[in-house]
Amino acid sequence: TRPDALMDKIMANVAGGTVCDAFMGTGSTGVAAINAGKRFVGIEQNPAHFDTAARRIEAAIEARANLAEAA
């Protein structure tokens, strides 16, 4: 896994609105992309890793939506 704080810093400096990770693993890049307001496309062949990534990314999407509602 990639450290979340590092991925957040990288995403803040990535141009464009969509991020693609062809080796998604547990979704650190996806979470960072969502946190940065970017769209994310992830590919993972390991079903266990995919399920973990999907849960983490869904939680990041919900947290971002809740922040927007509170503002």
Describe the 3D structure.
It is a single chain. With 71 residues, this protein is mainly α. It has helices at 4-12, 28-35, 47-70, and strands at 18-21, 39-42. A two-stranded parallel sheet has the order 1-2. The mean pLDDT is 93.
- Strand order in the sheet with the most strands: 1-2
List the quaternary state of the chains.
Answer: single chain
SSE order: HEHEH
Beta-strand residue percentage: 5-15%
Calculate Rg over CA atoms.
12 Å
Overall geometric form: globular
β-strand number:
2
> Whole-number average pLDDT?
93
- The first-to-last residue Cα distance is 32 Å
Helix percentage: 55-70%
- Detail the poorly predicted runs: none
What structural class do helix, strand and pairing data support?
A: mainly alpha
* Main sheet: strands, sense, barrel: 2 strands, parallel
Tally of alpha and pi helices: 3
Which helices and strands appear, and what pairs or packs with what?
Layout: H1 4-12, E1 18-21, H2 28-35, E2 39-42, H3 47-70
Parallel strand pairs: 1-2
